[in-house]
Write the structure tokens for this entry.
Amino acid sequence: MRGTVLMLAVTVAAVGVVGCLLPQETPLTPAGAVDAPALLKQRCAICHSLDRVNKARFDRAQWERTIALMERRGARLNDAERAALIAQLAAGAAGP
Ligand code: HEC
């Protein structure tokens, strides 16, 4: 029984890692679906317009720092949402 639980945990962790590496075009399964563009509108356009986000030309490391800064300022994101947003933004998908 413990073995089964462990296997499950390992599988979930592996799926999580692969999920982060999926190309942007890959449709996410409904269970883990995070709609990054909708999230941007809901969570990032609260304190400033999305212009701020669209104008930023950041690489992945800069987005990671910026998202962490926004969270300190009050943006609310869970781990899956943060990962999806960073992937989307780093791919330049918030662009014009
Ligand atoms: C609680 C308020 C708040 C929320 C929510 C918020 N931001 Fe911000 N954000 C700010 C403030 C305040 C600034 C202006 C900081 C400054 O100019 O020094 C800013 C500035 C920015 C900038 C410009 C940074 C730069 O260096 O040019 C970007 C990009 C940005 N936010 C992205 C985001 C993203 C992406 C989200 C969603 C995860 C988000 N913000 C959510 C408050 C917020």
Summary: The longest helix spans residues 2-21. The chain has a mean pLDDT of 77. Residues 43-44, 46-48, 52-53, 56, 66-67, 70, 73-75, 77, 85 surround heme C (CB under 6 Å).
